[in-house]
Design goal:
Number of helices: 11
Bound molecules: 1,4-dihydronicotinamide adenine dinucleotide
Low-confidence stretches: none
Largest sheet: 6 strands, parallel
Strand content: 15-25%
Radius of gyration: 19 Å
Order of helices and strands: EHEHEHEHEHEHEEEEEHHHHEEEH
Length: about 325
């Protein structure tokens, strides 16, 4: 039988982990014929809770689950990993300054970047969900000099899926009619969900909506602030949808995006669309066999230019801040 694919997940005892692990174990990433070994990283105080989650994984008797390793040492957990989903991060707590948050996460993602560099399999792909996702990915990438930069991505697929869902609801069409959605920039409130290149049943989405006021003052803020709206309603942050988007992103990266469509992924910029080289920014990308390509040649009007520039400026600020902290060179 096939060798198991080794999938490392960090923050495995957290909220997103509780949804994500069961999806991966049941075959959502690699299908019913590929066994998966889960390699789960947590901080020491959360290992007991993680043992409980592993008991539940056992109790599902998933045919595709070929074993589970848990631990608190990234050098051990990332050993031989083919895919690493970096979900665990230090949340912002009361009284914490932005700089404190960046340095707490900096410590996590420098260490994990080095451990991936030294121990992961040669075909490793790394997806960062933990916030601030783009900058955490930048820190991990910068601390893993032997891993090609294209192997790192940060999650904007949840924003992408939210944008599809909002547009489908507005036009009262199934989500399957919507293609070519793009999230540009940072996974933050400055992100730019772009309807000018999206299509509804093959026709331009902005034209189909025909309402610039809705686009600017309802659609964009609803998508960008959806995370806060979920916290307000649910009392805790989006977890099942974040796990689902983490699955969608990894699956499409490895298996390929659909024909005549693209996905949003935050990847290292090559300077496309005026995004400074080296920043991890969300772009429209097509994917195939674990590689991605930024979709080229889209016309960017003044409105979109302003929105993209604002989000990219925030990414540059975050990069400068972690540079100042010595987390990247
Ligand atoms: P959570 O707080 O429930 O779980 C996080 C887990 O990470 C905890 O169990 C914690 O012990 C663990 N952790 C902390 N430091 C770690 C380390 N150094 N190594 C391994 N594990 C570590 O949080 P939740 O809700 O699961 O969210 C996880 C992250 O995902 C957060 O940063 C959140 O902001 C982010 N997020 C990102 C989204 C996106 O679209 N990119 C969407 C939703 C959440």
């Amino acid at each position: 039988s096939a060798q198991p694919v080794k999938v490392a997940v960090t923050g495995a005892a957290g909220q997103i982990g509780y949804s994500l692990l069961f999806r991966i174990a049941s075959g959502a990433l690699f299908g019913p014929d590929t066994p998966v070994q889960l390699r789960l990283l947590e901080i020491t105080p959360a290992l007991k809770a993680l043992e409980g989650v592993v008991m539940e994984l056992d109790d599902c008797a998933f045919p595709t689950l070929a074993g589970v390793e848990i631990g608190d040492d990234p050098n051990v957990i990332f050993d031989g990993a083919n895919l690493a989903l970096l979900v665990g991060a230090r949340p912002r707590t009361k009284g914490m300054e932005r700089g404190d948050l960046l340095s707490a996460n900096g410590a996590i993602f420098t260490g994990q970047g080095k451990a991936l560099n030294d121990h992961a399999a040669d075909d490793i792909r790394i997806g960062v969900t933990g916030n601030p996702a783009n900058t955490n990915a930048l820190i991990a990438m910068s601390n893993a000099p032997d891993i090609p930069k294209e192997r790192f991505s940060a999650l904007t697929r949840l924003d992408h899926n939210r944008a599809i869902s909002q547009l489908a609801a507005k036009l009262q069409v199934p989500v399957t009619e919507i293609t070519k959605m793009t999230i540009w920039g940072n996974h933050s409130a400055t992100q730019y969900p772009d309807l000018f290149h999206a299509e509804v049943s093959g026709k331009n989405a902005a034209e189909a909506v025909g309402d610039q006021d809705w686009l600017e003052n309802t659609f964009i803020p609803t998508v960008a602030k959806r995370g806060a709206a979920i916290i307000e309603a649910r009392g805790s942050s989006s977890a099942a949808s974040a796990a689902s988007a983490t699955i969608d992103a990894a699956r499409d990266w490895l298996n390929g995006s659909a024909k005549d469509d693209w996905v949003s992924m935050a990847v290292v910029s090559d300077g496309s669309y005026g995004v400074p080289e080296g920043l991890i920014s969300s772009f429209p990308v097509t994917t195939k066999n674990g590689d991605w390509e930024i979709v080229q040649g889209l016309d960017i009007d003044d409105f979109s230019r302003g929105k993209i520039d604002a989000s990219v400026a925030e990414l540059a600020e975050e990069r400068d801040a972690v540079k100042e902290l010595g987390l990247i060179s």
